[in-house]
Design goal:
Blueprint lengths: L2 E8 L4 H14 L3 E4 L3 E2 L6 E9 L12 E6 L2 H6 L4 E10 L6 H4 L9 H7 L3 E5 L1 H8 L5 H10 L6 H11 L5 H12 L2
Parallel strand pairs: 1-5, 5-6, 6-7
Antiparallel strand pairs: 1-4, 2-4, 3-4
Length: 189
Amino acid sequence: MTKNIMIVGVGGQGSLLASKLLGHLLLSEGYDVKVSEVHGMSQRGGSVVTYVRFGEKVYSPIIDKGEADFIVSFEKLEAARYVQYLKKDGKIVVNTQEIDPMPVITGAAQYPENLIEKMENLGVAVEAIDCLSLAEEAGSARAVNIVLMGRLSRHFDIPAEKWEKAITECVPERFVELNLKAFSLGRNS
């Protein structure tokens, strides 16, 4: 049974590290893993999507609409943008942060209101957490990605120690302590 995780966000938020970490962890657990390249504008501000698929045997890295078990979103609008990819019983883990896309920055559009409520009204299971505050508590606003991974880890039968080992192996040594703290804050939020 293949499981599908979409990581969606805005360029410069660390979705690449999040997908690398997930892939590393799942490989170490003996799964066949396919991680797609990042789709979208990975420059700061553009919409970015990464697919992580794992199971006994995975043939394609692509996730189609209605196939995602989890959507991990760095930002509310990105979660709403990809909600149609979620399975009926899937879950969205979303950072409550709002990052204005270019049309909002230029004044051509307004940031949509009540996005969490709108997704929940569609019958979607949404776990919304303030990852930015937790990342800052850990020591850096840039650790939002690891806070999100901590929250996601609650949905897997993989012990926290194994996630922590993957962080230690994927993150530059000088950032390990900060990221372990961010993971713990996310997991226990």
